[in-house]
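seq as requested:
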Amino acid sequence: MEKIKGKVNLKLIFVLLCICMAIPSCLYVLKGNTIADLDSSYSFFINPSNQILSSQKIVETILFMGLWIGIAVLYFYFIKHHDTIFPTWKILLRFVLIVAILFMIVLPMTSTDIFYYIGTGWGEAHYGVNPYDTSIDELMVNNEQASNDSMLLKMKGTWSEQVVVYGPIWPLVCKVLSNVSFGNLGVALFVYKLFNLLLHLANTYFVYKITNQSKKYTILYALNPLILFEGLSNVHNEIFVIFFILVGIYFLITKKKILPAIVMLACATAIKYFAILLAPFFVLYYYREEKSLRKIGYSLLWALVFLLVFGAFYSMYMQNFNVLKGIVTQQEKIANSFFACIAIRNFKFAITLSKGCMLGYSIIYVVEILKLFSNKKEYTWKEMMQKYNGLLVLFIFITITNLQPWYFIWILPTIFWQKENARKTLQAMTIIATLSTVVYFLFKESYIFGQYYIFIFAFLILLFMIGQKKKTTNE
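struct tokens:
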């Protein structure tokens, strides 16, 4: 009985930590503050983000770190002891829902991207502009009504000078979500959060299905702190990309159907481009028993289907090739990656180096795919996903110049098939990705000075790997 009580208390502690994470947001609202006045740039809401290092900011930073580490430790413990802590699915699903709602309450704390989504969606829905051709700044200059619109004013300064950098499905979604808010910024934030909450629950279901109803892996996804914080609190669109990838995997390995799997992957790519890296693995797995020439033929066929679906969404916005500028625009931003360490001294060289790294990665990727084509061995899904995840992690670290914490969510849809030590390291990456941003709780975020992030991240990952190695040796 005492043992069971202890497990219940652990769940209660986890919920209390989540409540503590939500308290600053609740206090902010109870004080009568509005969403329009919300400072979401590395602020714990008690003291606005600025460059003054005060004792109050130190306390806030330590508080966040304590909450985050506490949640992370319990998260790992829950995965390890999933059967004793969550003896039934009903208990687990109820717990997942409670935790998800608590994180949904947390106002955007370390990112202003949600207001970029809201603004671009409202610009298209209410003013009829093409978000790939007209920036919010341009709209506000040319339209007097828009210049005083609270839905757009909140976005001012938050990438308001640039057009949409995402694939075409995302602005379509933003158009709908912003439109149903009826021009109220608070309602818009709630609508986007509710949308992501529903996606999170759907993703949890598909993880359950593709992992043969594994309680362990369902917890791994559903209670992952990075998903909860960046997906539900900061409302990033990664959670939507993950939805399409998981549905695609579901059709491929559970329903044994390639057409809907490729369509879903094309949809994921039509939000964020990294998802295209999975495409060859889908096709090669499905036709793993075929000879090399037939694999090539099928690959060309499904590449055509992929491009048709992808192109169909782009055609909705296609006036010129500006719709494709998003990829280039993102690569010209430098923050948090190892490129930031170089850019601080020579920005042009950092950009040139990033292009070289992209070329080098492309060669590595193509060579690995060709090996899969020519190899007579019938690779299992697990083996393919291990190879894919290795390539994905390499892509994140050596090609992304603007490395944001929420990008590590990309790892999660295929993490379930990794070797145990690799899986634990990848899980640690998702935790450390956000923990490393605490430096900005002390000092205001500065885009080009983001080199501190990658140093902290690398140091913490190294500590984790050393700890794992010692633990394995002792066992």
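The chain has a mean pLDDT of 88.
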